[in-house]
Amino acid sequence: MSGPAICVEHLSKSYGDTVAVRDVSFEVQKGEVFALLGPNGAGKTTTVEILEGFRNRSGGTVRTLGVDPADHSTQRWLRTRIGVVLQELAIEPYYSVRQVLSRNAGYYPSPRPIDEVIELIGLREKADERIKKLSGGQQRRLDVGLGIIGNPELLFLDEPTTGLDPAGRRDTWDLIKRLSSAGTTVLLTTHYMDEVEALAQRVAVLFGQEIVASGTPSSIGGRDMGAVTIRFRLPDGVALGALPFPAEPAAGDDHVLIHTEDELRVLHDLTGWALDGGYALAGLSVLRESLEDVYLGLTRSDA
User: Fold this and answer.
1) Range 65-74 average pLDDT
2) Cβ 207 vs Cβ 43: under 8 Å
3) Which member of 49, 112, 183, 195 has the lowest number of beta carbons within 10 Å of its beta carbon?
4) For residues 46 and 288, which has the higher predicted lDDT (pLDDT)?
5) Within a domain: 88
6) How far is CA 101 from the centre of its chain?
């Protein structure tokens, strides 16, 4: 397949007078992790289900792995080359982990080895345990295992770390990074902004059934161009007013804050002042608007 893994142009979906998605366009390049964000009701699930071939669109053009996911003549081919991890999967509670993975592996032409998947999802000690005896977090790991058992070219992950403890989340992040490094394309939906920053090369935000911003996690919404806050501990013996730029005390500790839109010049002059005077700028950091703040700003109903 040449071209992007996913190409969406002017996608729309309506149910009578109710618009679920309007004029949505984006691309996902092969091998990248792409995050599709948005509050509940924004159109994420509808968009993803159209990409997977489980829902028909009302208008626009969609290509998933180079084919139209609504084309019945290629749907079977497509479904052997994608993996899907939903928020909730219906799995027979009396099957073991190994049995469920073995059964699902039979649906694909070139599945991953069962033991390899069990190891990847961290369930080696639970391989022969019945699913009903697994914890919620362990069942979520199994969901991911079912998504990757077919060795997919394209993996859809719908909030894959919901219900996992911190160690389970990091293990899942590491697995997603390994899959991406090996060439698997990943489309991720999540409400965790730290997850987006850890995994995604690019991101698009859906709000009001349309895309309101897209870009890299560091640049979306002008995040890389806006004002910053420079924070450091006030040197001993230096009064606040003696600093080369107006500063204010930070709440709750002995640090000070300088707010500026001229980051490079202020840092240059501040560090030059500190070097000339022999002052230590302990804890020096540059704080930008967080990805969560940008996301909330883009998805406010009054924005």
Assistant:
1) 95
2) no
3) 183
4) 46
5) yes
6) 25
